[in-house]
Amino acid sequence: MPDLAVVYDSESEDEDYEDDEDEPDSDDVSNLLDFDADDEYEDSEEEENTHPSVSGKWQRLRRWVTSEIDRMYNTRYEECRDQLPRGPSYLHHVLMCLKTERADHFRANLRVSPVTFDALASAIETDPVFSNNSQNPQMPVEEQLAITLYRFGHDGNAASLQSVANWAGVGKGTVSVVTRRVMTAILRPGFMKNAVRWPTEAEKEEAKVYVAKHSCHAWRNGWLFVDGTLVPLAMRPEWYGKSYFDRKSRYSLNFQIVSLPNLRIIDFTFGHTGSTHDASAWEATHLVQDHDSLMEENEWIWADSAYPVSNSCYTAYLTATDTTKQINTWIAAPYKAPERNDPDNALFNNHVSILRIRSEHAIGYLKGRFQSLKNLRVHIKDRSSHVLATYWVAACIGIHSFAMQNEAEERRNNGISDDEYHDPFINDGLSTASSGSERGEPAPARAPTRLFLARKFREKLKEKLFRSKVRKAHARARDRRDDMGGYISDAESSSSLD
């Protein structure tokens, strides 16, 4: 038995152990076996007649040898590791070359302009998630942000972990780690409150001017739009999979987007599965919960026919001259069939669509910038992976809103108006922009009284639209008569109105 200890010692001298205390010697083995060298000669005859399997000393030795072998396999590689050769990183070419020389190619890779990229990196670089107590420093924040933006902005094979790792010149594990870090920094309340925020009075007035210009002056108080969108999942969720199955026979997540006419997102909800109706998901928006403090009297929001008149669609208020409680609607939707077949109602729906198309464009802009939202490659296996998927979309919305504000400022500094600029990202995302709930399942049942009031409110809007069209027609006829020197008779003017 001492020979075994000597052999182990001689082999251990050749090994490069980090700690000398881990090196066993003959004394350790003797203590382990409770073995006395003098006993070897005194009990030699007795040992010959004893089988090793029944000896407690041999059993303790066997356990010790087994544990040492297991420890060796757990801490050391017995063969050379098979490493994947890595090519040159395109990430550094994007950050070092394209950023300064080809801003258009930089934006195609990272989905934001170089100026916006620098502003975004400056906004999150002080976050605690980018610092650690390890002696090995993290990658620069700019590189971590670039990897995350590239991953957010691509779909299909280009968004796989291996493809992103090849593009960045890092390992697949590094891609996952830096993505989580950037998402953590983006979703901090301090960043999200500045990125996805309620508009200022000037921005609100600008939205009202747009609505009045594209409809009529009486509609200018309807300066907000809401619509739902489905974010398809690449794989069927293993965690409550049926609840993610939507009406389009896909597995998805439901998000509600509240936007301005300039396409900027100011409110949204997340965490709902694809089977959730838009009318139910809409209840979780900040706008619904704090409507009294956010919107003024006689202001409303445009929606599609999937949004019912419910408790959240009304606000009770008391006037100075009337102490009775009145119910005021603040959501307007187009007519459904069969009412929409009426010519006047069809004309009303057409003008509503002219405004609400901006809601479709807002969602298309988001998905066109971050195309990972067209087919989200997050496998939902439990609650934590569901949270990761919803946070992924929320982070994309936060970065998108931040980028829109910064890029709008860039255009103003360069003398480019918003009316002259059409971002190509909008067309890239329009194919899968809206959930199209108005063609899906009917909305939940409505209270008869509230339904009557909602229809009455919509009829008032239609009446104001028609009066505005008549006034504009009279104005055009008057201008035409003035241009002709007053030679047009009243009968001819009346016929021109028709």
Summarize the main sheet: 5 strands, mixed
Supply the number of structural domains. 3
- So what's the overall shape? elongated
The structure class reads alpha/beta
* Helix fraction by DSSP (H/I, runs of at least 4): 40-55%
Mean pLDDT: 78
| Proportion of strand residues | 5-15%
Write the H/E string, N to C: HHHHHHHHHHHHHEEEHHHEEEEHHHHH
Number of DSSP helices? 21
Q: Which strands sit side by side, in order, in the main sheet?
A: 3-2-1-4-7
**DSSP, total strands:** 7
Q: Which stretches are low in confidence, meaning pLDDT under 50 for 5 or more residues running?
A: 1-26, 28-48, 309-328, 437-453, 493-498
- Taking the alpha carbons of the first and last residues, their distance comes to 115 Å
Rg, Cα atoms, Å: 35 Å
Helix/strand layout:
Elements (H helix, E strand, L loop, with lengths): L1 H13 L11 H8 L3 H6 L1 H5 L7 H20 L14 H12 L1 H8 L3 H11 L16 H12 L8 H8 L3 H15 L2 H7 L5 H14 L9 E9 L19 E8 L5 E9 L4 H4 L4 H4 L1 H4 L6 E2 L11 E4 L8 E4 L1 E2 L10 H27 L13 H31 L10 H6 L18 H36 L6 H8 L1
Parallel strand pairs: 1-4, 4-7
Antiparallel strand pairs: 1-2, 2-3, 5-6
Helix pairs in contact: 6-7, 8-9, 8-18, 9-11, 10-11, 12-18, 20-21
Q: Which key terms come to mind for this protein?
A:
alpha/beta, nuclease activity, single chain, 5-stranded mixed β-sheet, disordered N terminus, HARBI1-like
